[in-house]
Design goal:
CATH class of the largest domain: Alpha Beta
Radius of gyration: 18 Å
Distance between the termini: 27 Å
Number of strands: 11
Number of helices: 9
Helix content: 25-40%
CATH topology of the largest domain: Ribosomal Protein S5, domain 2
CATH architecture of the largest domain: 2-Layer Sandwich
Order of helices and strands: EEEEHEHHHEEEHHHHEEHE
Bound molecules: cytidine-5'-monophosphate
Strand content: 25-35%
Number of domains: 2
Mean pLDDT: 97
Oligomer: single chain
Shape: globular
């Protein structure tokens, strides 16, 4: 049996800087990971099969187009018994499906003793699959295929992830954008000596998908506000195309207290404190 952890991907910034002729949007995004995620396991078997378990399994019926199965087919026609232990909310802006696909590629390449697919095939699975396969903090550009590692290590920090239980499909959010030619981040990303310094930098950046996502799902604004109101929250913003928002914290205790307070106020929300990793 072989297993991989599919970490949540967080867009600390997401600038939409243009659009390709095929409709995909050009992005400039600072991506980090949160130390919470799904697990993908693979065991030898004659045929290819997938079972989904875990607290979010009910929101993800097993279907032939599941990204884990699509990832498996990208690697070839062999068999395996796959299990996806689903913890991350589905279609929620933190790359759950993409992280699962990347983890499936890793476990099956190991099980079948085959190389990972070429970058174009990885990108075809989803624009966030390359960054999830990379699995560390990067500046992400193009439609998701240009990944530049950061010049300096990330400062130690904590995230609180909160999702109000609305799933927001990505295409309508991109469609509802007012502008597609927004300015990128500064050319050179500075290193940040502390998470406070990083938050000050991030405050001057944006997630351009936030306004259209909030127009489609107003709960997102309430989620972001609930995070921003917590003691110790340095910055609150939506990740990806939503609806999950993150709060950035310096201290573990403050992050855990904030997650506890929001969870108590909003029992229907998915709330998770997590170390920021890169
Ligand atoms: O590639 P992925 O399946 O994650 O993208 C879902 C949808 O989001 C795409 O079909 C496209 O409509 C939109 N998208 C985009 N530009 C990107 C990534 C996604 O327009 N860079």
């Amino acid at each position: 049996m072989t297993e991989a952890f599919a970490r949540a991907k967080i867009n600390l910034t997401l600038h939409v800087t243009g659009q390709r002729p095929d409709g995909y949007h050009l992005l400039d995004s600072l991506v980090v990971f949160a130390d919470v995620g799904d697990r993908v396991r693979a065991e030898p078997a004659e045929a290819l099969s997938l079972a989904i378990t875990g607290p979010q399994a009910a929101n993800l019926p097993v279907a032939d187009d599941n990204l884990v199965l699509r990832a498996a087919r990208t690697l070839g026609g062999q068999g395996a018994r796959l299990t996806l232990e689903k913890h991350l909310p589905v279609a929620s802006g933190i790359g759950g499906g993409s992280a699962d696909a990347a983890a499936a590629l890793v476990v099956l390449a190991r099980l079948w003793q085959v190389p990972l697919p070429d970058p174009a095939a990885v990108l075809k699975l989803g624009a966030d699959v390359p960054v999830c396969l990379e699995g560390r903090a990067v500046r992400m550009a193009g439609v998701g295929e240009i990944l530049t590692p950061l010049a300096a290590p990330l400062p130690d920090g904590w995230l609180v992830l909160a999702n109000p239980g609305v799933s927001v499909p990505t295409p309508p959010v991109f469609k509802a954008l007012a502008r597609r030619d927004n300015p990128p981040m500064p050319d050179d990303l500075p290193g940040w000596p502390s998470v406070e310094a990083m938050a000050a930098f991030l405050a001057a950046q944006r997630n351009d998908l936030e306004p259209p996502a909030i127009a489609l799902a107003p709960e997102i604004a309430r989620t972001r506000a609930a995070l921003a109101a917590q003691p110790g929250c340095l910055l609150a913003r939506m990740s990806g195309s939503g609806a999950t928002c993150f709060g950035l914290f310096a201290a573990e205790e403050a992050a855990r207290a904030a997650a506890g307070a929001i969870g108590a106020e909003q029992p229907g929300w998915w709330v998770a404190p997590a170390r920021m990793v890169g």
